Amino acid sequence: MATHDEWDEARARELHDDLVSLYNPVEKAAEHGSDPDAAPGDGVRQLLTTILSQNVADQNTRRASESLFDQYADFAAIEAAAHDELADTIRVAGLPDQKASRIQRALSATREETGGAYSLAFLDALPTDEAKAWLMDIKGVGPKTASVVLNFHFGKPTMAVDTHVERVSKRFGLVPSSATNGRAHDVIDGIIPDELTYPLHVLLIQHGRTYCSARSPDCDNPVCETYCRCEGCWRHSASQGIPTCARIS
Ligand code: SF4
C-alpha cells in the first residue's frame, strides 16, 4: 500500500502491468490520437459531443449527438441557432440550457481564435498545458472535458479523470483522498508516463467497473492486494469478520 508521496513513474508502470495481467493490454483505438487525415472539424465535433456527455449516460449522449448533427447543417448553424431550439434539440442529454450555452460558447471561441474557421487543429501544435488552458477558458469546459478532447482526439498526454478513475486512484493512494477533481487531473498527469495515459485511463475504469464500485466493492483481487490503501478495506478488516470493503469515499 502506497501513500501519494510514494507514487512515481516506476510505480505507475507497475500498476499498468498488473492491471494488464488482470485484464488485457489496451490497444490504441484506430481513431485515438492525432490523425493527419482528420477533417478540420473533427476536433470540434469531439468537443461538442464531450460537452453533451457531461453527467449523462453514453446512450443519451449518442442520441443527443445524432439529434444535434441531424438538425443543423454545419457548426455555423449551431452557433447561430436560437437558444431554446438548440436546447430542445439536445434535451435528451440533460441540462439542455447549460449545454446549449456551452456548445455555442465553444463554437464562438473556436471561430474567434481561428479568424473564422470551426477547427481546433491549432491545439495540436500547442504544449498540452497551453492547449488545456485554452479549452478550459471556455465557461463550462472543465479539466475532464478538455482532457477527453486532447487525449482522445489529439493523443496528448492528459488523462480524463472520470468518477471511476478518481475513486480507484484515491483508494490506491495515487491521488490524495481530499483532492478535488481538478487537482486529481494535475496529480495524475504529473505521475503517469505519457504513453500510459490512455491505457491507464481505460484500465482504471475497467477496474472501477469490475471490482471497485462506489458502494459494494469486491476487494478480493490481486491488484488491490498490492495497491489499495483504504482504511476500512476488507483486507485490513478481515480479522474483524467484515466481508467487504467498508470504506466508501
Ligand atoms: S480493495 Fe476494495 S475498496 Fe480498495 S480499491 Fe480494491 S475494490 Fe476498491
List the SSEs and their pairings.
Elements: H1 9-22, H2 42-53, H3 58-71, H4 75-80, H5 83-89, H6 96-114, H7 128-136, H8 143-153, H9 163-171, H10 181-191, H11 197-210, H12 222-227, H13 234-237
Helix pairs in contact: 2-3, 2-6, 2-8, 5-6, 7-8, 9-11
What is the fourth-level CATH superfamily of the largest domain?
Hypothetical protein, domain 2
Which molecules are bound besides the chains?
A: iron/sulfur cluster
Overall helicity? 40-55%
User: What is the CATH architecture term of the largest domain?
Assistant: Orthogonal Bundle
Q: Runs with pLDDT <50, length 5+?
A: none
Q: How many domains, as an integer? A: 2
CATH topology tier name of the largest domain = Endonuclease III, domain 1
Structural class: mainly alpha
Shape: globular
Through-space gap between termini: 17 Å
Describe what this molecule looks like in 3D.
The chain has 249 residues and is mostly helical. The protein has 2 domains: 4-28 and 160-240, Endonuclease Iii, domain 2 (Orthogonal Bundle), CATH 1.10.1670; 42-153, Orthogonal Bundle (Endonuclease III, domain 1). The protein contains 13 helices and no strands. The protein has helices at residues 9-22, 42-53, 58-71, 75-80, 83-89, 96-114, 128-136, 143-153, 163-171, 181-191, 197-210, 222-227, 234-237. Helix 2 (42-53) runs antiparallel to helix 6 (96-114). The radius of gyration is 20 Å and the shape is globular. The two termini are 17 Å apart. The mean pLDDT is 90. The chain binds iron/sulfur cluster (SF4).
